[in-house]
Amino acid sequence: MALVRAQLAALEQSSAVGPQLYRLLRDRIVKGDLAPGARISESEIAASYKVSRQPVREAFIKLAEESLVEVRPQRGTYVRRISVPAVMTARFVREAVEADIVRAAAQAVTPNILALLEANLTAQRAVVDSDDPSRFMELDEAFHRLLAEAAGQPAIWDILEDLKTQMDRVRHISTRQFPRERLIDQHAAVVAALRSGDPDAAEAQMRTHLKGVLTDLPAIAEAMPEFFDEAGG
Question: In whole angstroms, what is the distance from residue 231 CA to residue 113 CA?
C-alpha cells in the first residue's frame, strides 16, 4: 500500500471522497503503479487515507464497472489483467475515428492550432528521455485532443477516452519499454501533413501511428504474460 499512501495529500477535504479515490486509483491502475493481478485492500486504503470504508467501496464498484478491478468473494479485490480483446477493439475504433479527424483537420487547421501542435511536439522532445513516462503521456493525450479540436470535433476525444482505458494501460508500458522518439516522429509527420493541407497524407500517417500497438502488444504480452488476459474475461 506504499503506492497508495504516496497519494494521500491529493485528497481534498472539501470534495466528496469517493470520486477522488476512484480517480486516483483508476489513474494508478492505468499507469501500472498498481500492477495487473495485484490485490488491493479496502481496509488498507481506507486506513491510508483516514476515511471510512464506504467511499473506498464506492470507488471499487466504479472500477469494477470499468473492468479495472475484480471483486472475488471471500478472497479480496484484485486489479484486473489487461484485456487483449479490449485493447484491439479500442485500437480499431481509434484508427477509424482519428483517421477521419485528421482528414477534417487537414482541411480546417488554423495557424493557432498548428502553433499549439508544434509547441506540444517541443514539449514531447523535452521529456523524451525521462524515467517517468507520465508527462510524455499527458502531452500525447493533449496532442490528440488538439487534433480533434482542429477538426471541429473536441467532444469526440471525451468519447474515445472512455473507450481506450485498456489500450492506455498498454501504452504506459510501451512508453517505458520502447523508444519514444518513434512516437514523436509519427506525431511530427501528422503535423507536417496538416501544414501542407494534405488529407490523404494526414490519414496515412495517423493510421501508421495507431497501428504501432499491433507490434508493441505481442512483444509486451510475451515479456509480461502475467499482466494480460488473452480472452478478455
Answer: 41
